[in-house]
Specification:
There is one protein chain. The chain is 28% helix and 26% strand. The protein has 254 residues and is an alpha+beta fold. Strand 7 and strand 8 form a beta hairpin.
Length: 254
């Protein structure tokens, strides 16, 4: 490395190292998926102790810039995508991150929903519209979407929600433009779990790699359930950031 640290700098040595290592990642000298120099090599190169190097690397592991693999070393990881802090679609989140989104639709069809979904989306025809898509970010499979929509919403608009249309378009945009729907509020739960074998294959996951499960119910301003969706995201590429406030609770509402 052409850069160096300074013992006259008021910043701790490990902090200076961390910033230098981040620069190596951002300028591409430490490439994504590549193994970085060992702790011994870095300590010798910068004239510091291995403990100092280890602390700098540990902070970058904790922020997901690096990942340690047993028997291989420390590698540079892909940056994680953070969704916007709002009720947004996959397409909106990817575009905000400067990523080109694509989709592969496996199913877009009427089905008899499971009991829990049927109760939430009542229909005289005992059916709901089911959509299952692979969500892709710059050719990398990022997530799986399995969603249900009420009969009254999709009936008569099936051509807009065909597999061909859903491969090309944001589902939320289709709902807003062609169904006149205003998406107002949503309830979400987030869990981490091990994926089913087929889901792991579709998402191109490494063995024993967990996924993030997001379950979302979305409502319109009249409190009608518009969508009940299960989203499975790769935990190595996707993360949530939540901003919390200590302000007084006002209560009421969903």
């Amino acid at each position: 490395m052409s850069m160096s640290i300074s013992r006259d700098n008021p910043l701790p040595l490990y902090h200076q190292l961390r910033e230098l290592f981040l620069a190596e990642i951002s300028n591409g000298r430490w490439q994504v998926g590549g193994v970085i120099p060992s702790e011994i090599q870095l300590a010798k190169g910068f004239g510091v102790s291995r403990a100092t190097v280890r602390q700098a690397l540990l902070e970058l592991v904790q922020t997901n810039h690096l990942r340690r693999i047993q028997g291989k070393g420390t590698i540079v990881t892909e940056p994680k995508v953070e969704p916007l802090g709002a009720l947004t679609s996959f397409t909106e989140n990817m575009k905000a991150a400067g990523i080109t989104p694509t989709r592969t639709t496996f199913f877009a069809e009427w089905r008899r929903p499971p009991p829990a979904i049927a109760k939430a989306l009542p229909s005289s025809k005992n059916r709901a519209y089911y959509v299952e898509r692979l969500l892709i970010a710059e050719s990398i499979p990022l997530g799986l979407q399995r969603a249900w929509y009420p009969d009254w919403l999709i009936s008569g608009n099936e051509s807009y929600f065909s597999r061909k249309s859903l491969d090309k378009n944001s589902l939320y945009e289709l709902l807003q433009i062609h169904c006149g729907i205003t998406l107002d509020t949503a309830e979400e739960t987030i869990d981490v779990l091990m994926p089913a074998a087929n889901d792991a294959k579709l998402l191109d996951l490494a063995p024993d790699q967990p996924i993030m499960l997001i379950q979302r119910d979305t409502f319109d301003p009249s409190d009608r359930l518009i969508e009940s969706v299960e989203l499975l995201f790769r935990s190595d590429r996707y993360r949530y950031r939540v901003i919390l406030s200590r302000s007084q609770r006002t209560g009421g509402g969903r």
